[in-house]
Every structure is written in structure tokens, then in C-alpha cells.
Design goal:
Elements lengths: L11 E3 L8 H4 L8 E4 L5 E7 L8 H9 L21 E6 L6 E4 L6 E6 L5 E5 L6 E6 L5 E3 L5 E4 L6 E8 L3 H9 L5
Antiparallel strand pairs: 1-9, 2-3, 3-4, 4-11, 5-10, 6-9, 6-11, 7-8, 7-10
Length: 186
């Protein structure tokens, strides 16, 4: 790991100023069905997603849509030819006991607002498609924004269950940095 080259502000932003309790999401997760996620290139992943529209009426989701009202979050289907697609939001459950999530850059979204719901979980960042791991970020119960559309990332194989809620964000990374500076304690 090359920490001397790690500049986290180009890879992720922690939003510790925003109140977040994973339990607010975990109360309703078991009510929803998940389906296997196929990426934009038609490849299988160790992830399952839930795009049920009733997630959007959950009070906690409505709260965070209001918190991020100035961000470009598009709540509608965006197809991946040969893949599962994106909906602007997703509940994601991963089983990485046999395989991790391969190194990639998100094909259809510039950034991802991530609500980690289980712990421990981590994400690896890479300088390029062929580089070793630059840094491994250990999630905390803090909302983060990942620069997932322009920074290479992966998830290592693990026996730990992984559950997240995400909003797809279509602002540029520079716009996101400005918008996060204006987020107040909520």
C-alpha cells in the first residue's frame, strides 16, 4: 500500500456532518427482495440489488433525498445493454465469500452516495486498471461519496456480509466538493 500517494479527497468524501444511523435502514431491509446484479458489460457480480420503488417512500430515504436535494440524483431506470441497469438508488447485498468485486470504474454514474449498513466492510482504491491497491478504506457508520466514475476501485474477497444503500450521483467531482461544503449539520 502506497499511503504517500493517497489523496483521499480525490477518491472519497466522508460526510460526518450529516447524522446517520444504519439501524434506520436495517429496520426495513428484510421486507425487500433482491435480484442478482449483472454489470454494464454483461458480467456477473457477487452482488444482489433491490430497486423496489417503495424504498423511495421510506421516511429515512425521503429524509436523505431532502438532504441531498441540490445533488443530481436521477430517480429512474438507466439501462445497461446486457446488464441490470441503475435506478438512481439501490439497496445492495453482497456475498463475497467466493469472489470479491473486480477492479472497475463505474460505467454509468460519476459518483455514488453510499450508506454503509453492515460492518466491517472496506473498499480498495487503485491508481490505474493495472496497479496494485493504493489504499483500502474501512467503512465507518458515516455517509460517504465515492468518486466511482473516474477512480478505479475493487472489493476484496471476504466472509463478512456487506449491505449498503446508495444514491447514484451525476454531478462532477468538483461540483460535489462544492456541494458538500454547503451541507450543514443535519
Amino acid at each position: 500500500m502506497y499511503k504517500d500517494r493517497w489523496n483521499n479527497s480525490e477518491f472519497l468524501i466522508e460526510l460526518s456532518q450529516i447524522q446517520f444511523n444504519p439501524e434506520d435502514f436495517l429496520r426495513f431491509v428484510d421486507r425487500y427482495e433482491f435480484k442478482h446484479y449483472i454489470n454494464a458489460y454483461g458480467k456477473s457480480t457477487p452482488q444482489e440489488v433491490c430497486y423496489n420503488r417503495s424504498l423511495l417512500v421510506q421516511p429515512i430515504v425521503q429524509h436523505y433525498l431532502d438532504v441531498f436535494k441540490d445533488f443530481d440524483i436521477r430517480l429512474g431506470q438507466s439501462d445497461h445493454p446486457g446488464g441490470t441497469g441503475l435506478n438512481g438508488w439501490q439497496l445492495i447485498r453482497s456475498d463475497m465469500t467466493e469472489n470479491g468485486l473486480a477492479r472497475h470504474i463505474d460505467a454509468k454514474r460519476p459518483a455514488c452516495i453510499t450508506f454503509p449498513l453492515t460492518f466491517p466492510q472496506s473498499i480498495n482504491f487503485h491508481e490505474s486498471k493495472d496497479s496494485d491497491i493504493l489504499y483500502t478504506y474501512e467503512y465507518k457508520p458515516v455517509i460517504i461519496i465515492l468518486n466511482s466514475g473516474s477512480k478505479w476501485h475493487s472489493v476484496s474477497q471476504t466472509a463478512e456480509p456487506r449491505l449498503q444503500f446508495q444514491f447514484d450521483c451525476y454531478n462532477s467531482w468538483e461540483e460535489i466538493k462544492e456541494l458538500t461544503e454547503n451541507l450543514s449539520l443535519i
